[in-house]
């Protein structure tokens, strides 16, 4: 019984008031045979229910307020009871009564889970929250579902509205989509939903890209034409922007020295084949040894010679300590 599985996964649910319901993702995941790590709970007094479990974190505001409690690594989100017809997709509109175990599934979400289909409840729900259009793509990617024709058509007709959604929410969905290791399918779904043009500024041709298993930064490096502006618009972290720009530079000129400077972790994300340097390589001579040979004091000139030495080693023109000594002596 779904109720029993939910109570095993989320033991604190035994403490909720009678006829409280678990709804949405946790129910969907259990029906898929997956293990949920968070549960959405709807009740008449969500703050009271949450407070009874532990320290409460308040998310959102007004009618959309959610009260979150984290216990033993499990996330419990409490909110007021809502009409299932206002939810995004049928697979997320299944509720289980935690007292009786009764399941409500007015839109045949369980059947759609069996069919592996993402299907909207009503097109107006996409207008209520346009982020749901992008979430359809994420769900299809995550569970290897298709998006049904009527839903895809409704999304295409409204795709331009995605830019009205808060940047952080869009970025969360895109990061999830491009971190799934299914790059070409993600592009195909975004293109079929007409979400690519409002988000990236052009219509993406998925056939241009030969690879699937890309890192998040590599995916963006291939897609984003102006990382600085895109990062500002969609509130990227500084680290992600830096990695994307570095990868784009390496795509233009994947020379050994640039790859070495980027570091092994980032360089191996490069979305093209390139000869990689020996990332463990160190200068054959340290700064003190170079200073002794060249009679130079510490400073920029000494640093430049040390840098030139490592570049010569990377190119293969200096391979031994004796060659290194001759190189730095002649460079002084």
Layout of helices and strands:
Blueprint: H1 2-9, E1 21-23, H2 25-31, E2 38-43, H3 46-51, E3 57-59, E4 66-71, E5 74-80, E6 95-97, E7 103-104, H4 109-115, E8 117-118, H5 123-128, H6 131-143, E9 146-147, H7 149-158, H8 167-178, H9 183-192, H10 196-200, H11 216-223, H12 227-233, H13 238-252, H14 256-262, H15 264-267, H16 287-294, H17 300-315, H18 321-331
Parallel strand pairs: 2-5, 8-9
Antiparallel strand pairs: 1-2, 1-6, 3-4, 4-5, 6-7
Main features:
332 residues; Beta Polymerase, domain 2; 18 helices; two-stranded parallel sheet
Describe this protein's structure.
With 332 residues, this protein is α+β, with helices and mostly antiparallel strands. 48% of the residues lie in helices and 10% in strands. It is built from 18 helices and 9 strands. It has a 7-stranded mixed beta sheet. Strands 8-9 form a two-stranded parallel sheet. It is elongated. The mean pLDDT is 93.
pLDDT below 50 for ≥5 consecutive residues: which ranges?
Answer: none
Cα-atom radius of gyration: 27 Å
Number of domains: 4
Strand order of the largest sheet: 3-4-5-2-1-6-7
Largest sheet: 7 strands, mixed
SSE-based structural type: alpha+beta
Second-tier CATH architecture of the largest domain: 2-Layer Sandwich
């Amino acid at each position: 019984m779904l109720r029993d599985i939910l109570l095993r996964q989320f033991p604190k649910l035994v403490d909720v008031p009678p006829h409280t319901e678990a709804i949405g993702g946790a129910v969907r995941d259990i029906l898929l045979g997956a293990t949920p790590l968070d549960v959405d709970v709807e009740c008449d007094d969500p703050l009271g229910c949450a407070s009874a479990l532990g320290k409460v974190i308040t998310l959102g505001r007004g009618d959309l307020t959610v009260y979150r409690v984290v216990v033993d690594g499990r996330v419990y989100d409490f909110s007021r009871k809502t009409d299932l017809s206002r939810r995004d997709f049928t697979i997320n509109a299944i509720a289980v009564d935690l007292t009786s175990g009764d399941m409500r599934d007015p839109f045949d979400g369980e059947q759609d889970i069996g069919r592996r289909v993402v299907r909207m409840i009503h097109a107006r729900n996409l207008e209520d929250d346009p982020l749901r259009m992008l979430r359809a793509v994420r769900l299809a990617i995550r569970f290897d579902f298709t998006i049904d024709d009527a839903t895809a058509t409704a999304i295409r007709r409204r795709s331009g509205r995605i830019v009205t959604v808060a940047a952080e929410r869009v970025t969360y969905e895109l990061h999830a989509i491009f971190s799934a290791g299914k790059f070409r399918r993600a592009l195909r779904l975004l293109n079929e939903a007409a979400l690519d043009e409002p988000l990236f500024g052009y219509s993406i041709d998925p056939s241009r890209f030969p690879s699937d298993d890309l890192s998040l930064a590599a995916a963006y490096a291939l897609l984003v034409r102006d990382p600085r502006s895109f990062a500002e618009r969609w509130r990227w972290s500084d680290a992600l922007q830096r990695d994307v720009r570095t990868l784009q530079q390496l795509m233009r000129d994947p020379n050994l020295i640039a790859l070495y400077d980027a570091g092994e972790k980032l360089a191996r994300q490069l979305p093209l084949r390139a000869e990689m340097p020996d990332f463990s390589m160190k200068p054959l001579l340290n700064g003190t040894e170079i200073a002794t040979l060249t009679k130079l004091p510490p400073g920029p000139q000494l640093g430049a010679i040390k840098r030139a030495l490592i570049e010569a080693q990377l190119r293969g023109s200096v391979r031994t300590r004796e060659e290194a000594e001759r190189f730095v002596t002649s460079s002084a």
